[in-house]
């Protein structure tokens, strides 16, 4: 039996909550919740597929590579497997899988291989959650989780990193969300 969109969203919420029940506090259900709510708010003024925005926002950090030994395939794979299990249309699965693959700060200065207005909205919502008091709290929480220094002037900023340099740097410093 195919589920209606509202039921799919509710099942996705339940799935994400259960998957992230023991997640680090900056990347837990409440981060997902804030990104989901903000993405829906942004989407109201854009011409996008709200269903894709909601699914992408809910699943964007389902298995963040920072917590999975740098494995960038686990998140998209987990999102795909879940969406298949609840019989979501393959075109929507592909779009959400691409969102999970290409979200956030992973790309550094590299050009993105996938773009969509839905991805842009979710990425903006995710980045907004990295600002202000919540963003500062998330940064300290992640740094504490990784047992990192708050500040080390011996680690100079590098604004022109390759993807590999970025991945190595975020494993040493706490300011990457």
Descriptive notes:
Helix content is 56%, strand content 0%. It starts with a helix and ends in a 7-residue tail after the last helix. The protein has one domain (5-170): Hypothetical protein af1432 (Orthogonal Bundle), CATH 1.10.3210.10. It has eight helices and no strands. With 177 residues, the chain is an all-alpha fold. It has helices spanning 5-19, 29-43, 50-59, 74-85, 90-102, 117-128, 132-145, 163-170. Residues 172-177 have low confidence and may be disordered.
Average pLDDT taken over every residue: 81
**The named CATH superfamily:** Hypothetical protein af1432
Q: Class in CATH?
A: Mainly Alpha
What is the alpha-carbon Rg in Å? 16 Å
Ends distance: 39 Å
Compressed to H and E, one letter per element, the order equals HHHHHHHH
**Tally of individual domains:** 1
Question: What does the largest sheet look like?
Answer: none
Q: What fold name stands as the CATH topology?
A: Hypothetical protein af1432
Instruction: Say how many strands there are.
Output: 0
- Based on Cα principal axes, name the global outline: globular
Structural class: mainly alpha
Helix content: 55-70%
Write the CATH architecture name.
Answer: Orthogonal Bundle
Low-confidence stretches: 172-177
Proportion of beta-strand residues: under 5%
Count of individual helical segments: 8
